[in-house]
Predict the 3D structure of the following.
Amino acid sequence: MVTAIGGPRVLLRQLRETMAEPLASQERLDKIVDLIAENMRADVCSFYVLRDDSALELFATHGLRRDAVHITTLRLGEGLVGLIAAEAEPLSLQNAPEHPSFAYRPETGEDPFFSFLGVPVLRAGQTLGVLVVQNSERRVYGEDETEALLTTATLMAEMISTADFDSLVKPGSDIDLRRPRMFEGIGFSEGIALGQVVLHDPRVIVTNFVADDTDAEKLKLDEALKTMRVSIDELLNSGDMQIQSDHREILESYRMFAHDRGWVRRLEEAIDSGLTAEAAVERVQNDTRARMLRQTDPYIRERLHDLDDLANRLLRILIGKSTGLGKELPENAVLVARNMGPADLLEYDRTKLRAVVLEDGAATAHVAIVARSVGLVAVGQAENIVSMSEAGDDIIVDGFSGAVHLRPTPDIEATYIDKVRLSAKRRAHYAALRDTLPITRDGTRITLLHNSGLLADMPALEETGADGVGLFRTELQFMIASKMPRVKDQVELYSEALRLAGGKPIVFRLLDIGGDKVVPYMRSQAEENPAMGWRSLRLALDRPALLRTQVRALLQASAGLPLKLLVPMVTETVEFLKVKRFILREVERLPRLGIAPPTTLEIGAMIEVPSLLFELDHLLPETDFISIGSNDLIQFLTAADRANPRVARNYDAIGRPRLRALKLIVDAAAKFGKPVTMCGELAGRPVEALALLSIGMTRLSMGASSIGPIKEMVLGLDLAALRAEMNHYLENGETDGSAREVLTEFAERHSIAV
């Protein structure tokens, strides 16, 4: 092994000085490879950059022919350089021409050189290029030299990402870091949005790479690790992390990684090579991310997010940057995040926000429901989009197909601009239907209602011409508050909602928290299966003071007005009767307080637990109306976690067994003369709405943006013909095909827009 002149710290300082000099980009790059070759006693130093067409282009060299620069290229995976880029792993060889992947390029004049050391240039786990040193003598590059070259590559990665590097790129091409990318996700809410990326949890940008005092940097790292470990322990012991087991599991993973000696040792070794503590964290995480992205084991790939978040957390501590997220947005902002809760989303200025893109989540997750409620385009399961995005990148979000285009090409952008114009025409068409009653061609009046929960979406009642609010989710006020809302706060919310409803009916669902609806100020025990745990009505019955406060606020807000209350997650009739008696006792005390009672009071039950299907004959006589919560009901009927994309996507919500269960409820409601409303997410999608109408349902509650498409579908529908065809399908268990196929074919035959 040949010892480098001055060591890696000297080289890093020289490189830092060179990057600060007022040189042309190519001149600076040529000087950098000269410095690396001199410091490492190498005959050759070459720098290849990965272009957006997956070719590795020689950008600078010391020792090879200079006229090969910007001429010599290798495909990704071709030759030793292509192999390093593809595998994101260093490669050290004593006799490079003997390696089976060796690719000879005569124009470079590399014939005399045998020993070879190449390392990937990485940023956020992405390969940006390859840095190579070569010697004519046959020798083995040691671990210290490999480490030194990897450290140098960290600095090179930052140089590639700067704007002044653009002058080196040939016209008509770009580097891979900035190439357009398309992600195939799942649409959570329909629509198309064009805008600029805003990262919900922005990556910390490291600006200081070269350490002046390695001992001081190690001490800084040690203190930051201690601070981070304490903060993780505090989070694990906080109330909101006791509620959801999946959140707790993530933090347990953080704690495990934070105490991992191997990880800490690699950080210390990176500092020894001359990097600052923060640059060491970025360097180690780049290497780790590059390796894990190439793993096929899904568990290992899932842990990548944990490591990314942990590294970002440590960087924030090292740099002294607050973890508080800035909420300043550009116009046409598109929020990009791994995951987030509804409270996080509602903190942003919705007048500037156009769309939300998540790496995780499901269409029935509450952040997706809130996104639909406030009219945002939303797409989930866009894998790895956070690490591939930079703040300010152009982005297009297609909520119809689930496609997300990051840094789109001009032709794709032009195509979507046309789609946006077409979408605007459709919105204008739907707006023209506002005052048209939703009556089928054969004369059946369909009631179309909104799902709501925020005052911000209440004005849409007037804009869409909906018949009222079929579901007002009162829990959103509790989820976005930092402390328990007082009676006064609740009264103000409910009073304003009633005012904005303008006399149209509004159904207030009683508090439905717990499970995946985390309320930070309520402490609870961790549960293995929160969806089936201490939540919703169970929590309310165990905490009567919480229920009493809300009921009193609702009664006070509706004084002299009609009031409809919906009891969520009823498991058996006796639970509903307990709540009903509870509410009636509160009504009886109103005159003593000088408060006028509601002019009418209707109390309904939400059917979302399958066991209740076997007590409908007991329940329905006690209710004034019922509503079906399809999100939870379908989840429990299929034993498929609606927030788990691995299983949720395998079950069609309108498959024959689910439709027969829903029809059982509709038929029972008709028998007892009780109104029944579908207020889950099913009602807002045309094919699913067709399925619901086909089994006898005539009251549908949905997001505001769905009213227009569903009304158009209703106006073109012969309901009797639809029901005849679907009754045959449901009664004949041997019929081939799915309900979705039957409904789609029916719509095509009858020219119904779905």
About this structure: The chain has 29 helices and 22 strands. The domain at 214-319 is CATH 1.10.274.10 (Enzyme I; Chain A, domain 2).
